[in-house]
Automatic annotation (TrEMBL):
Protein name: Troponin I, fast skeletal muscle
Pfam family, one: Troponin
Entries under PANTHER family matching the protein: TROPONIN I, TROPONIN I, FAST SKELETAL MUSCLE
GO molecular function, one term: actin binding
Signal sequence annotation: none
Biological role: Troponin I is the inhibitory subunit of troponin, the thin filament regulatory complex which confers calcium-sensitivity to striated muscle actomyosin ATPase activity.
UniProt keyword annotation of Acetylation present: yes
Keyword Ligase: no
Gene3D superfamilies reported for this sequence: 1.20.5.350, 6.10.250.180
The organism's taxonomic lineage, starting at the top: Eukaryota, Metazoa, Chordata, Craniata, Vertebrata
InterPro entries xrefs: Troponin, Troponin_I, Troponin_sf
GO cellular component entries: troponin complex
Coiled-coil zones: 18-106
Length: 182
């Protein structure tokens, strides 16, 4: 039994080692992601927010203020639109998750057991005695015989069954049937 315990300890140690390795990997990935986000932020700011240089005259200063106010307004509108979109999406998500919850409540899921079964056994279970053991399904699908299509064509040529019934109904039809010897 000590051999078994050693094996178990080794497996547990290996599992622990794998867990810690995965955690270290995750931490390094998160750090990389944060660094990339920071770089992206700096690039965005550099592109959209040029360094401020204050002009000397009063008129230039007023013009700059007007420009800044216009920019603030457009950014504020964008922010508002984005917030509205977010609220709408959040509401949709809540509705959908509520629907999911309601649906889950209505149907009791039966506890399913895994059953190992070959495809043949599955077909036999579904089709019963009709099932002939032949698992080459693809080959069966690809084989289209000319005779079959000819038969279908003949069937189509027979025409609409309703016409046949109408022709055989009534006194006229009986007379024809009698003459034909049916």
């Amino acid at each position: 039994s000590s051999h078994l315990q050693k094996k178990r300890r080794a497996a547990t140690a290996r599992r622990q080692h794998l867990k810690s390795a995965m955690l270290q990997l995750a931490v390094s990935e998160i750090e990389k992601e944060q660094a990339a986000k920071e770089v992206e932020k700096q690039n965005y700011l550099a592109e959209h927010c040029p360094p401020l240089s204050l002009p000397g005259s009063m008129q230039e200063l007023q013009d700059l203020c007007k420009k800044l106010h216009a920019k603030i307004e457009s950014v504020d509108e964008e922010r508002y639109d984005t917030e509205v979109k977010l609220q709408k999406t959040t509401k949709e998500l809540e509705d959908l998750s509520q629907k999911l919850f309601d649906l889950r409540g209505k149907f009791k899921r039966p506890p399913l057991r895994r059953v190992r079964m070959s495809a043949d056994a599955m077909l036999r279970a579904l089709l019963g005695s009709k099932h002939k053991v032949n698992m080459d399904l693809r080959a069966n699908l690809k084989q289209v015989k000319k005779e079959d299509t000819e038969k279908e064509k003949d069937l189509r040529d027979v025409g609409d069954w309703r016409k046949n019934i109408e022709e055989k109904s009534g006194m006229e039809g009986r007379k024809k049937m009698f003459e034909a010897g049916e």
